[in-house]
């Protein structure tokens, strides 16, 4: 799964293509993480965080802090597939991003994430907490 996304992101075997990277990243990133296979759930979670960081940094995608926060919120839905030390690093990134966004922007990002996911976010209350 991540391979197709990575091929377009890094230009491995195909021309580097940010549009196709985003298409595949979104398709994979919006799959349900309740997969019985933790490897697949981890891949989905990793793509969500990768998109959040690409939008935050303007790396291979136009910098967009609202979209970055949206993908961080989606990542948060199943961050327990990440190791504790990685969760801590991502929480720091989320907190830094929140300082750059206003309340209306954060709420808009939440609505956008819920629209993409097709359901309400269920883990927002734990956004700043490391989960086992």
Task: Provide structural commentary.
This protein has 132 residues and is mainly α. It has one domain. 64% of the residues lie in helices and 0% in strands. Helix 2 packs across helix 3 and helix 3 packs antiparallel against helix 4. The mean pLDDT is 92.
Order of helices and strands: HHHHHH
| Helix percentage | 55-70%
What best-fitting shape do the alpha-carbon axes yield?
A: globular
Q: Give the uncertain stretches in residue-range form.
A: none
- How is the biggest beta sheet arranged? none
Average of pLDDT: 92
Distance between the termini: 25 Å
- Secondary structure class reads mainly alpha
Radius of gyration: 14 Å
Number of strands: 0
Work out the count of structural domains: 1
Q: What is the percentage of strand-forming residues? A: under 5%
User: How many DSSP H or I helices?
Assistant: 6
Label this structure with key terms.
single chain; 132 residues; mainly alpha; globular
In short:
It is built from 6 helices and no strands.
Topology readout:
Blueprint: H1 2-10, H2 18-29, H3 38-57, H4 65-76, H5 84-100, H6 103-117
């Amino acid at each position: 799964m991540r391979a197709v996304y990575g091929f377009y992101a890094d230009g491995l075997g195909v021309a580097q293509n940010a549009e196709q990277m985003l298409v595949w990243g979104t398709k994979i990133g919006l799959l349900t993480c309740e997969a019985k296979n933790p490897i697949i759930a981890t891949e989905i979670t990793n793509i969500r965080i990768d998109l959040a960081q690409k939008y935050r940094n303007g790396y291979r995608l136009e910098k967009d802090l609202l979209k970055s926060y949206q993908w961080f919120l989606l990542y948060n839905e199943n961050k327990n597939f990440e190791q504790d030390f990685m969760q801590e690093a991502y929480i720091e990134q989320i907190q830094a991003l929140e300082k750059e966004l206003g309340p209306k922007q954060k709420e808009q990002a939440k609505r956008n994430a819920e629209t993409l996911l097709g359901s309400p976010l269920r883990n927002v209350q734990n956004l700043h907490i490391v989960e086992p």
